[in-house]
Amino acid sequence: MAKVFIDGEAGTTGLQIRDRLAGLDGIDVISIDAALRKDDAARQDMMREADVVILCLPDDAAREAVVLADALGADAPGIIDASSAHRTAEGWVYGFAELFKGQADRIAAARKVSNPGCYPTGAIALLRPLIDARLLPSDHPVSINAVSGYSGGGKSMIADYEAGTADAFQLYGLGLHHKHVTEMQLYSGLTTRPIFIPSVAAFAQGMLVSIPFHLSTLTGNPNAGDLAAALTAHYDDTPRIRVTAEAIDATKGKLEPQALNGTDDMELFVFADDALGHAVLVARLDNLGKGAAGAAVQNLRLMVGH
């Protein structure tokens, strides 16, 4: 029986993780008294008891929690950090099991795992296979566009949307320094910093990440089938990520973001017109599923051997 402490279980991601763990054999979720959630000594006692701690905290609080855990020395638990604090940090294994063959084994052997961001999950899933297959040059200037449900925006954004006071749709990150860009570039394999423009809309969960290409600028001037084949080969033995067969059809002109809500799956699509030489690759996922809680549970199961 693996003991798991969710530090920050009252937040959106923490609650989602707890719900998922409730149905798993061999996992015992231990909880701190609500009155002691900010008591460092009490939290450290919980960490000492746990086999794995999942951090569902703001970035600075997550860094402080890691200091508490490390202070336990030989009694320190494994850590999965769902914040963005350690995603590119030395000594942490990136918790995207499908990144490349062997990454799941690295996660299983790790003591510190950084959970991927929701937007990077979609972008990296589309880009990494094309770079590995040498269809996409690593120095290619890439633009990444995405829309998410408001549940990924934190307490104040959730409150604004639920109160009906937020705009129906908004672009943000227009300063071009969104904190996810470094993560996207590093794990996709890009050597040129991509342009990333995120947006949020008036639905709670769901996400689309889209990347357009001029096919003539890619290596060997590939067609839609070549792009889809590279994605399919990369994810051939990964049940949570699917390249849907009907995706290679330019007549299918619409895609909505909420179809995978409540699941831990991700779908990848290639929409293209070979005559025009244009393609748009799209990842669809639940920003709270494969984009957050689902990935954390997947990493936990690898770390404890379930």
Question: What topology emerges from the helices and strands here?
Answer:
Layout (H helix, E strand, L loop, with lengths): L1 E6 L4 H10 L5 E4 L9 H10 L2 E4 L3 H12 L7 E4 L11 E2 L8 H7 L2 E3 L3 H15 L10 E7 L5 H8 L6 E3 L9 H8 L6 E7 L5 E8 L9 H11 L6 E3 L22 E8 L4 E8 L3 H16 L2
Parallel strand pairs: 1-2, 1-3, 3-4, 4-6, 5-6, 7-9, 11-12
Antiparallel strand pairs: 7-10, 8-9, 10-13, 12-13
Helix pairs in contact: 1-9, 4-9, 5-7, 5-8
Tally of DSSP helical segments: 9
**SSE topology string:** EHEHEHEEHEHEHEHEEHEEEH
Mean pLDDT: 94
Give the N-to-C terminal Cα separation. 10 Å
Radius of gyration: 20 Å
Question: In which range does the helix fraction lie?
Answer: 25-40%
User: Major beta sheet, specifics?
Assistant: 7 strands, mixed
**What global shape is seen?**
globular
Q: Beta-strand level of the residues, as a percent range?
A: 15-25%
**Which blocks of ≥5 consecutive residues have pLDDT under 50?**
none
The total of beta strands comes to 13
Describe this structure in words.
32% of the residues lie in helices and 22% in strands. It is of the alpha/beta class and 306 residues long. The strands form two sheets. The chain has a seven-stranded mixed sheet. The N and C termini lie close together (10 Å).
Keywords:
single chain, six-stranded parallel beta sheet, 9 helices, 32% helix
